[in-house]
Specification:
about 280 residues, alpha/beta, Rossmann fold, 8-stranded mixed β-sheet, 11 helices
Length: about 280
């Protein structure tokens, strides 16, 4: 991997949620693909350590994982640096290439990943990639809290389907606010926005106290076909509404377009009263 020569300080984008099955992996693989398509040097890190799906989504068979990198870091001799980029797996589709640091393949390996060493991995990758994207598990773990601090942008994902999911989203949003990050660091992203539900987006935004930064449409067929084929939506010919919305999201991130518009939306909703 001699391509990694110039030291840089890459942007770290972490994909986080307080609910499972909200689309973190689908969105992170597509953002990695779109950034790479634009000519950026991109690494996607799968730190959903126990149940990571990045390799499955991209149909990769990694020879080395985050666990192997940790082992090498633990055994390195003084003065002999371990190069994190040597433990990556390339994803290639036509002329688009980016790299993946895969999650461990065994459950016991996932349990033994040390948070401090995992953060060292990310910091190393920052030196050789324009963008380091990190897919995470849905907990406020030691590793995730450290990632939130380090991140340039935190993509906080949610869906509007069931009351427990929204409750967890509200708890997560309030917790992130208490961390006193810059207001532009946390981006609330709604996935599967037009799924059939009796809960309105407006009610959820009122509950959270701010509008969603970006809204992605529900397109189960396109998403499932993309995963089946191992080709992210933004790279597929023919396009789809979801793929276009994902490209728009990347455009907003790379152009640093911030939506600071406040939104006072009427009286208290039934959803707000439940959580009041």
């Amino acid at each position: 991997m001699g391509v990694f020569t110039q030291e840089i300080n890459g942007v770290v984008i972490t994909f986080f949620s307080t609910a499972s099955a909200v689309g973190k992996t689908l969105i992170s693989t597509n953002m990695a693909s779109e950034l790479a398509r634009q000519g950026k040097k991109v690494c996607l890190v799968d730190f959903d350590l126990q149940f990571g799906d990045v390799s499955n989504y991209l149909q990769l068979l990694p020879q080395r994982t985050a666990y192997d990198l940790q082992q090498a870091m633990s055994q390195q001799q003084q003065g002999v640096a371990v190069r994190a980029e040597e433990f990556l797996t390339p994803y290639e589709y036509h002329n688009v290439v980016f790299y993946v640091l895969a999650a461990p393949t065994k459950l016991e390996e996932a349990y033994n990943i040390d948070a401090d060493k995992a953060m060292d991995m990310v910091r190393q990758l920052q030196k050789v990639f324009d963008y380091v994207l990190v897919d995470t598990t849905s907990t406020f773990s030691k590793l995730n809290l450290a990632l939130l601090d380090l991140s340039t942008i935190v993509s906080f994902l949610g869906i509007v389907d069931f009351i427990p999911t929204i409750k967890n989203m509200k708890i997560g949003s309030e917790t992130l606010k208490k961390m006193n990050y810059d207001k532009n660091k946390i981006r609330l992203i709604l996935n599967r926005s037009n799924a059939k539900t009796r809960i309105s987006i407006e009610d959820v935004e009122n509950l959270l106290g701010e509008p969603f930064y970006h809204i992605l449409p529900n397109d189960f067929h396109a998403a499932s076909q993309s995963i089946k084929d191992g080709v992210p939506l933004v790279l597929r010919s023919g396009g789809s509404e979801l793929g276009e919305a994902l490209r728009d999201l990347v455009a907003r991130y790379t152009n640093r377009v911030y939506d600071d518009a406040g939104d006072e939306r009427g009286s208290e909703s039934w959803l707000a009263r439940i959580f009041g």
